[in-house]
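STRUCTURE:
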């Protein structure tokens, strides 16, 4: 766990361990998505009419499903086997970001409609997505005040 550091541009950065069960929840959703995709491939195969000789080549959907599983299952394994998942955060005057690169989730303070505050994290709920921000315990007061000062006055604040 790292203490929050302010950079020369005025933004704050830190990384923090996140709840393993919360982290793994998304792996379960991914597994469900993979299963739905595989079933969809099989249904499409069943709906396609047979060729002139009256049979269908079963190897085609099995090949597609095999490729899907070869890509997805190792990813889900690594996702689920993380012993100590961490997340990186960046906080500026206008937003807080969690995650890395293309997988990052941004929460614009002005678009936040609800904030859930707990002992270990804050969850910002906006128009399209939620963003759970884990904070080192020694910095929670600072981050909580920083965020609550910037969300709209009509945002619902819930303490748990």
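SEQUENCE:
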């Amino acid at each position: 766990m790292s203490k929050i550091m302010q950079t020369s541009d005025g933004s704050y950065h830190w990384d923090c361990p996140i709840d393993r069960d919360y982290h793994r929840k998304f792996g379960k959703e991914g597994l469900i998505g993979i299963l739905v995709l595989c079933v969809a491939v099989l249904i499409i195969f069943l709906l396609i009419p047979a060729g002139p000789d009256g049979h269908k080549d079963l190897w085609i959907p099995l090949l597609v499903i095999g490729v899907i599983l070869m890509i997805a299952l190792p990813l889900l394994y690594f996702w689920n086997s993380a012993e100590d998942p961490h997340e990186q955060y960046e906080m500026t005057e206008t937003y807080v970001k969690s995650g890395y690169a293309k997988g990052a989730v941004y929460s614009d303070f002005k678009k936040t409609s609800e904030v859930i505050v707990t002992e270990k994290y804050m969850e910002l709920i906006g128009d399209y997505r939620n963003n759970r921000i884990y904070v080192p315990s020694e910095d929670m007061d600072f981050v909580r005040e920083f965020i609550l000062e910037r969300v709209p006055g009509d945002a619902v604040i819930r303490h748990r």
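REMARK: The first helix runs from residue 20 to 47.
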